[in-house]
Amino acid sequence: NGNPSTYIPMKTAREKSPSLLLASLALLLALWMTSSLQAQIYISNLGTTVVKYGLNGSLDTGFTMSVGGAGFYGLAVDGNDLYAANFSGQKVQKYDATSGAFSANVLSPGASPFDVAVYGSTLYSTYNSFVQLDKSTTSGTGFAVFATAGLANPVYGTTVDSAGNVYVVNYTNSKVVKYTVVGGVLTATDTNFISTNLSNPFDLTVDASGNVYVVNYAGATANAGTVTKYDSTGAYVSTLVTGLTAPHGIGLDGLGNFYVADTGHNQVGKYDTVTGAGTSNFISIASPFYITTVVSTVPEPSSIALLCIGGAAFAAWRMRRKLA
Length: 324
Description:
By secondary structure, the chain is mostly beta strands. About 15% of the residues lie in helices and about 45% in strands.
């Protein structure tokens, strides 16, 4: 175009065209390998098995995990380790989260565990006859009573937030207790962290912003058979779901949804964390009990990037033919 600053000699263009092509393809390949979040949903169905579903509600047939007796209750996933409360076996056990294969007996405390929660290398557990929250390492060492304040028999669901604070439902007195933990040390206890709009709470979960979602199992109040939401201070936000029958477990997928074991209706519902809108029979399963979810980041191709890669390759080929 007559502008010396933009002129590229023919030989130089020929030499650079392959490297330009490679650079373009590398850039577009990076765009192609965009990340997406996917969730796996683990469900114990009142006893003998744990089943695993994908984000679309499809059963993972490659996952097999079973035990005799009353079997599995609470579940927690950490990496590729799935921790399960074996109620009838009076043990906390570890399984492979991908295949369901047994890995190890972690705890044998002499009581039937109800629920488990994991934070780093710390394992928290609740039990049928222990009016306490217990703590150990994920390998089972250092088992000891961690807290008792605010609890009443039976002690059911427990969870941990992103900062390491622990929450436990007080089923009998319809409350949620919060234990503030700093560096693995209990520094404060709020025995009335949540005490409104509850009715025999059975399980709970906490999102990344500290919002708490509670499953209300039963009782003679309007809150029975509901899921209620609270902010990070414990203040009531809203009732997201109603009409559940004897619900038990709850889990979040990190994608703006939560899942509830609607035990009396033999189904697991999927709902929006803000509006409560969703599908009550997202998964049909006999007697679902506890639920845990794990969110993973996986690469997936972008259709736009694929088109760009194809276009760049074609353009580079045309340029090389012209320069030849």
